[in-house]
Amino acid sequence: MQSTLPYSWYTDPEVLRREQALIFRSAWQYVGHLGQIPEPGTFFAGRAGRTPIVVTRARDDELRAFVNVCRHRGFPVAEGEGKRETLQCPYHAWTYGLDGELRSAPRSDEEPEFPREELALRRAEVGTWGPFVFVNTGPDPEPLSHALGSMPAQVEELGLDVGDLVFHTRWEAELEANWKIVCENFLECYHCQVAHPAFAEVIDVSTDAYGLSTDGRLSSQRGPVRENVRLEGELQRSQFHFLWPNLGVNIFAGRANLSIGPMVPLTPDRTYRFLDYFFGRNVDAAWIDELMAFDAQVGLEDRGLVEGVHRGMASGALDHGVLMGRSEQLISHFQHLTETALETPARPL
Ligand code: FES
Ligand SMILES: [Fe+2]
To answer: Residues with Cβ within 6 A of ligand 1?
Structure first.
């Protein structure tokens, strides 16, 4: 039987430091959506992994992303979202254009040869898939379309046009568990029958019906609706995608819907999650409320699971666990990618 990653990898600050440097720094991260920057002169603050980010649409209508850290002494220059011509750092009032250029800095005329041109906000790459905005803070990143792999095609094949989706709500949570535990919980539905009774009543989670596949960094789960469940809407199946290292995308069977968001490591034992929910323009409020309540219940059940796993791993009582070859093949894939990125194989592959 295959062993899991060593449990020490879920608690060791040195492993997280390596993950930040070798995995997150160069990964495309979902940060928000185009509805947050609907017109010239708008911006929103977010985060790409650990890096604070500000995404702007300047006068020229161009979409740009910057590291949201003042070039003076490091305060975040933007907070929340809004419409304004400039971003002014609240610490000493250095003022940047939405194009990132430093426009003014109080008393800079008292400084001989103040290098204003060299003190623009640090640029990050930005890309979009439908309304979804992604940022990459690494040097010379691969194109976003390459990173997304076959996910957009699979979603389209299901009959969902992401371009038609409208943002509904953002859900946020902090979990007392290592980020990899949260990802691994997303990657198997072996626990669904036991831990998510309401979910398993609607979706057929049996081994033969519930499809698992990988394609590069993408892991996909396809859950058919049980035969006795009357399906309202055009989407015949659920699709749950995971894009390594830390993005989850959920589409439930029924009407046009999608939720998307990352699992962000804060410390070895704390993870921040957010999920942006989108629905088709004509989806009625009652259907939306029902889905949101259903998903909130599943989320609550998952919180108990991942936090429990973290306590078990962190106790130091055992060195590792084991993986079910068939039902947990996507976890095995996740662990292989993670291990390879950290370049220190901990077990024979
Ligand atoms: S840190 Fe931003 S103006 Fe000083
Ligand atoms: Fe779950």
So the answer is: 70, 72-75, 89, 91-92, 94
